[in-house]
C-alpha cells in the first residue's frame, strides 16, 4: 500500500502506477494506493519487477510528491518437476560385459531456483531394469549390475529412470525417461553340428566341381562372429572331395575333385571340421571354437560309355602298303560290371575321303585307299566306340597316323634349265651347272648321280661331269659352234638316287647357240633371245587383242539391239485397231479389253483414215503411207480380215515380230457380231482352227498351239 503524507483523506489526491506489468499484472487503487496482483506470478518467467508510483493532484494533475521506485521479487516455490533432455535414450554394450560397465548417462534439469531451498536439487533412481542395471543417483550414469549377460538369452532391455527434486524427499516432484539398451554380439559360442553323421549319394558320372551335398554347423552368434570355415581333415576320400563355404548361408558345400568310379570304390568316409574364422581370446576358456562330423558318400553305378586303353593313339604306316593292310588296333572296354560288347567305327567327318576303315569287332584299323606321303604326311582320324546294347553310350579317341616314306619318286631338276653356248666357245668350257631335288625323304641325305642318256653319250657335242655333291656341270666338247647349222641342242640327262629301290628320271637341257662378244657375253641367238625384253610378251599381246575384239562385238550388238527397240510398237493410242503380242507369256485383258482398238472400224470399214500413220512406231520417211482400198458395205468380215492380213504380211514397215489384229466386238447392234472363240460357239469342238495355218508364217505359233489342242482332244 502506498500512502502520501499529503493525503488528508478528502479524495483530492490520486495514485498512479507505471513500470513492469503496470496495468496488466499489477493495478493500483487510485484512492487508497493499494497495489494488487491480477494474475498468478511465475518466477521461472520473470523473477523481478520494477514499478514506479506517484501521487498527483486530482484537479490539477500535478504531482504532490516526487516519484518513488520499488522492486518486487518473486519468491520461488517448488512448482516445476525435473525434465530429461531426451524422451528416449538408446544405448548398447557388448554381451558378457563385467559388472559396472558404463552404459549411458542420462540428464534431467529443474526450472526452479537452485539457490533457494532444494527445489532444483535432482536425484536419479531406477524404476525398471533391475537387477540388470543400476544408476548413480547424482550423475545419472547407468551401469551394468549383473555378470555375464548373454545376448543369446536376451538381447533387448528397457530401463526406466526417475529424476526427483527436493533431493528425493517426500513431496518432491519427479520426471521419468526410458532407456533402451541392446546387447551386442561377441563370439562366445562355438559352431556345433546338429548331427554327428551325414550321408550323401553321388552318381559316378558326377562332373568335377559339382556339389554332392551340403552340411551346416549352427552358431548362435551373428554376423562375423558366426562365420564358419569348413575343411576335410581326414578320411579315405580326402583327395577325392573338397568342401567350400557358402558365404550367404554359412553352409559347407561338398564337391567332387576327382572322377568317381563305382567299379573301383563305391563308398567314401570323410571327417569334416567347422571352425570359427573370428575367435575372441577372452572366451577361449569356454572351449574350442570348432566342431567335427562324419560324412559318408555312397557312389552310385551308372551306365558309362566304353573307355579306351589310351587317351590317344599314334600309328605309322608305309606309303606303299597294300590296300586292306592292318596298320594298328585300338581297344576299348565297357567299365560297367555288365561288360557290354563294344562296336568300333570311324568318324567320317575326320576321314572324308574314306582312306581308312576299322573292324567293328576288334578295332583293327586298315587302309582302304592308296597312301602318298608326299601328298599328306599325317592323317588325324577319330574312332568311336559304342556299346552294342546302348549305342548312345559312346566315346571317342583321336588316332594320329603317320605315313612313312618309301623311295617312289625319281629325282628331277630343281628348275627348268635353258642355257646358251657361244659360237666362239672353247672346248671343255662350263656353260651350265645342274642341281636336282627329290620329293622323297632321306634319312641320310639325298645323293644324286648325273649322266648323259645312252643315246646322247657318244654323239653329243657336250659332256656332263658329276660333281658328287648333288650337282653336275655341262661342258663343251668342241671348239666352235655354228648357229646357222644347228641353232638348238637338246641334251638328255639321267638323274638317279642311291635309295632302294633306285629311282631315275631323264630330264632335258635346252642349249641354244648364240653370237657372243670376245668376253662371252651373248649378243643374239638364231631363234629368240633367252633374256626376254622388258616389253609385253606375245601371249599378253594376244590377250589384249582378244579383249579389244570382244569389246567391239559387244558395242555392235548393243547398237543393233537399240535400233531394233526403236521399231517396237508403243501402244499409246486408244485409236489403234490392233493388239500387238509382245510376248506369249503375258496375260492380256481378254475380250473385255475393248480399249486397245477402235470398234468403229468394224461398223464402218470405209471410215478408216487412209492417211493415218501408225502410232506404235516412229514413222520412217523412206516409206510413204499406203492407201488401203475401201471395203464395200456387204464385205464379209472374213474377207476383210484376210485382206488386212495380206496387207500386214506385205507391209515393209511392219516390225519383225508377230502382230495380231483383233476384231472382236461384242455389243448391241454390232454388224460383225462376235468373232471370239470363247463366245461365238457353245463347245470347243464346234470351232475349227485349221484356217490359222493359211494365215502365213506370222501366225504359225497360234496354228501350232490350237492345232495341238485339237489333236489332244481327238486322242
Distance between the termini: 157 Å
Largest sheet: 5 strands, mixed
> Spans of 5+ residues with little confidence (pLDDT < 50)?
527-535, 570-578, 602-628, 679-684, 711-715
- Give the overall form: elongated
Mean pLDDT, to the nearest integer, reads 81
Beta-strand portion reads: 25-35%
Number of helices: 5
- Give the C-alpha Rg: 64 Å
Number of strands: 39
- The name of the CATH architecture of one domain is Sandwich
* Coarse structural class: mainly beta
Q: Superfamily at the CATH H level of one domain? A: Cadherins
Task: Tell me the name of the CATH class of one domain.
Answer: Mainly Beta
Q: If you consult CATH, what is the topology of one domain? A: Immunoglobulin-like
Q: Which range best describes the helical content: under 10%, 10-25%, 25-40%, 40-55%, 55-70% or over 70%?
A: under 10%
Function: Cadherins are calcium-dependent cell adhesion proteins. They preferentially interact with themselves in a homophilic manner in connecting cells; cadherins may thus contribute to the sorting of heterogeneous cell types.
GO biological process, one term: cell morphogenesis
GO molecular function, one term: cadherin binding
Keywords: Calcium, Cell adhesion, Cell membrane, Cleavage on pair of basic residues, Glycoprotein, Membrane, Metal-binding, Repeat, Signal, Transmembrane, Transmembrane helix
Structure in words:
There is one protein chain. Strands 32, 34, 37, 38 and 39 form a five-stranded mixed beta sheet that branches. This protein has a four-stranded mixed beta sheet with strand order 7-14-13-10, with no helix packed on it. A four-stranded mixed beta sheet has the order 15-21-20-17, with no helix packed on it. The chain is mainly beta. Residues 527-535, 570-578, 602-628, 679-684 and 711-715 have low confidence and may be disordered. Among the domains are: 13-73, Cadherins (Immunoglobulin-like); 83-184, Cadherins (Immunoglobulin-like, Sandwich); 197-300, Immunoglobulin-like; 307-404, Cadherins (Immunoglobulin-like), CATH 2.60.40.60; 412-524, Immunoglobulin-like. The longest helix has 29 residues, at 538-566. It contains five helices and 39 strands.
